Amino acid sequence: xxxxxxxxxxxxxxxxxxxxxxxxxxxxxxxxxxxxxxxxxxxxxxxxxxxxxxxxxxxxxxxxxxxxxxxxxxxxxxxxxxxxxxxxxxxxxxxxxxxxxxxxxxxxxxxxxxxxxxxxxxxxxxxxxxxxxxxxxxxxxxxxxxxxxxxx
Amino acid sequence: xxxxxxxxxxxxxxxxxxxxxxxxxxxxxxxxxxxxxxxxxxxxxxxxxxxxxxxxxxxxxxxxxxxxxxxxxxxxxxxxxxxxxxxxxxxxxxxxxxxxxxxxxxxxxxxxxxxxxxxxxxxxxxxxxxxxxxxxxxxxxxxxxxxxxxxxxxxxxxxxxxxxxxxxxxxxxxxxxxxxxxxxxxxxxxxxxxxxxxxxxxxxxxxxxxxxxxxxxxxxxxxxxxxxxxxxxxxxxxxxxxxxxxxxxxxxxxxxxxxxxxxxxxxxxxxxxxxxxxxxxxxxxxxxxxxxxxxxxxxxxxxxxxxxxxxxxxxxxxxxxxxxxxxxxxxxxxxxxxxxxxxxxxxxxxxxxxxxxxxxxxxxxxxxxxxxxxxxxxxxxxxxxxxxxxxxxxxxxxxxxxxxxxxxxxxxxxxxxxxxxxxxxxxxxxxxxxxxxxxxxxxxxxxxxxxxxxxxxxxxxxxxxxxxxxxxxxxxxxxxxxxxxxxxxxxxxxxxxxxxxxxxxxxxxxxxxxxxxxxxxxxxxxxxxxxxxxxxxxxxxxxxxxxxxxxxxxxxxxxxxxxxxxxxxxxxxxxxxxxxxxxxxxxxxxxxxxxxxxxxxxxxxxxxxxxxxxxxxxxxxxxxxxxxxxxxxxxxxxxxxxxxxxxxxxxxxxxxxxxxxxxxxxxxxxxxxxxxxxxxxxxxxxxxxxxxxxxxxxxxxxxxxxxxxxxxxxxxxxxxxxxxxxxxxxxxxxxxxxxxxxxxxxxxxx
Lengths: 152, 750
Fold this sequence. Notes:
The structure holds two protein chains of two kinds.
Chain A: E1 2-7, E2 10-15, H1 22-29, E3 48-51, E4 54-57, E5 70-72, H2 74-77, H3 84-91, H4 101-114, H5 120-127, H6 137-151
Parallel strand pairs in A: 1-5
Antiparallel strand pairs in A: 1-2, 3-4, 3-5
Chain B: H1 9-16, H2 26-29, H3 36-40, H4 42-45, E1 49-53, E2 56-59, E3 64-68, H5 77-89, E4 96-100, H6 122-144, E5 151-154, E6 157-160, E7 165-168, H7 173-176, H8 205-210, E8 225-230, E9 238-243, H9 245-248, E10 253-258, E11 274-278, H10 281-289, E12 292-296, H11 305-317, E13 321-326, E14 335-343, E15 355-360, E16 366-370, H12 375-386, E17 393-397, H13 411-423, E18 427-430, H14 433-439, E19 446-454, E20 460-468, H15 485-488, E21 501-507, H16 523-541, H17 545-553, E22 558-559, E23 580-581, H18 582-596, E24 606-615, E25 618-628, E26 634-644, H19 651-670, E27 676-677, E28 680-681, E29 701-705, H20 723-735
Helix pairs in contact in B: 5-6, 12-13, 16-17, 16-20, 17-18, 19-20
């Protein structure tokens, strides 16, 4: 069955099982591998993408739920890595292995869109669904605060 | 292709008059295999270049290609390695192109394990850069007809000051072609370092932040199949019956293939089971769920953590094999204190579960793309699995989405290779999170008994440490009853305590799962037990824990565990160069206590705890501040760490490793536990095997690096061991309750 949606500003028409999680539709069918699998149960946030601007866990969301909507992945956050979150991540050398960072960045970008100057509690609330086994949390928190300061 | 690469090794040796020494040379193997990157960059391949050694290739467009033969898993080696080579080479940072090396013995040791990438390869990497630099100088000198001694390398060029001539490295490629490599080269003075010791930005920063970074799980090949494998829940079991009809009926499922039965001992061989291959991951997973398999669980079907724990504690409570003895640890004492510490199995749980892509060509040669910490062992394992010669196997190393020891074991790569050959198409094997947690190589469960005697003045005079855990060696050899010397060398034999009577005993413990390395390995539980018990002694004696710790470490001296009969490994390096130096251990204890403001007045319900540990030739001190609320719940408020790892290459990557190690240590102290029931692992995902999240980690984790000109020590692992004891000790300081079992959540504290 065909599922149509806007993926990083490009219209896609995927011939897939509508029950297939959006994650696998993005990775295996659309061929964008920046969005990561790590738990498959919405427990770690590595697969976070934006659905109509809201952060969602694509590993448990059926692709049919994206029909007619806008999906943004890490590849579509900016054309050249210039989104403020991406820039701050590089300035603070946040990433270690990097694997969870697509999800971290998508969660942080959605938070800052909603709350331009987030408190530590806001950060806890928005980012605690994203696990980083390398343990980059303190730099993530610092990066989010830095972006807020730079933009205020 | 340069002339250097065309001459024979015999001819090269004749010209250079050397037998190779520590360096291996490009020409020996230059045509044996082609790294994927070379194929992917055909324009660059048309350029002439000269390869002074296997790690460096200088192109005539001025780009210096540096081959990273170590695996990147977050420790930053893809940044640190070119810092070392590039510094000695006097290369411009912006003209370095990093290429990930394939798994091949021409690079020497590639096993990215044991925090070895800098500590064991610093001279090798400096030599690679320095000899390449001298080759450029020799080429310029020959071109200009001047003595090499009058030329200097600087800023990616060679300069002859007397005549004012300069030539860029790219322009010297033709002249250098065919020249022998300098036999040896002088290293730079540390005062002249441009990159070593500097916090260079992560080389993969752009890729990490744009989704462009490629891990094994991201590999795609034409005509590929996506594979997932149902394996026996218990180690050593086998298939009693299989009905795959429903699985084959799922749309997208292409094949169902049984893997070879597992071996005993398991080593790195495939674990058996049934693979479902499909045109996408979702179809493969659905097909797997539709498999109907009855298992014969085999010899480990009775493995249960509840009963095993009792067995392990009983083992540690009775005399074991004496592995180190100084004086008489049974000597009479005015008072005696004893305790038993228990810590469960752990899973490495890297965010990227094991994944590998494999392709077998019509001649039977196999090429894999894998998140491997140890690509040469992967190569040998794939060759063994397929009955090939190692030369028929090419292992491309992708980025690793975390490793922590799991990806040292290439079983998942062998699975992909086997399936690719059976299917006749490229296959990517993707482990699920449940596969990773249930079917991996677990960190040992452990029990440790400590007994210390004090004299009338409160000085500790005897120390007995019994340690019991299933050995990693059981994964590789039959009949291994308990802890081995290489494991006791991890934080037991090098016990720093200044006591006249010391004995370490190894107590037997059978293995019922695959046991493997996890970041810091046995140091995790050895530091936890000893670090907590020494804190207990302070409180028994009514002493300040930090002052008591320093007293227990005693005066600055060098310890050789062999003096007390121990078969001590010292992390594979020379004790003369890397002594067990109690002065450096005391110094990190003092420093980290200062950083944390040890002795300051704390808010109600707060406590500070301190622990120190030497591992992988580095010394780390940690202080945790915790709070306990009205409901008795624990919160880690702040962590201070201090590392003396000798000379460090990239201080920012060292700090990031310390920050991450503190959180890794927090996770295992607060949450980490893998248990078995009926031979199978109970936990399966991050709900049942939780790890620390943003909301529960301190906002501040401080990491100080001691200034040192000592030889480099390890960095990736040494930060972990002192964290759990620091937290447990802080909890005691805050609450007066001593917890002797991990994780703390089992005591209802989190």
